[in-house]
Amino acid sequence: MKKLKNEAQLVKKAMQVGESYAQKRGYAAFSAETSANLKVESLYRLLVQDKLVVALPPDKEDLPGMKHKLAIWIDRMLPDDHPLKAAS
C-alpha cells in the first residue's frame, strides 16, 4: 500500500464529506464523543456497502488500511483543481 503525499489531510476531508454522505443516506450524525477511529471504520463500512470503495481483504482490514481507502476515495472525488489534488 503506497501512502499518498497528503494522506492525513485527505482522510480529514473524507471524514467531512463521508459524514455528510451518511446523513443524506439517513444515518444519524456522529456524536461529539464518537472517536475518530470509530468514525473512520463506520464511514469505510458504509462506503464498502454502497460499493463506492473496494473492500480490504478480511485479514488486512485494519485502521491504517481503512484510512488509506478513504483517502483514495476522496482523492478521486475531488475536482482536478482542488488544492489537496495538487499536492498529491
TrEMBL record:
It holds the Pfam family DUF5062. It comes from the Bacteria. InterPro entries: DUF5062 (IPR032036), DUF5062_sf (IPR038316). This is DUF5062 domain-containing protein. It comes from Marinomonas aquimarina.
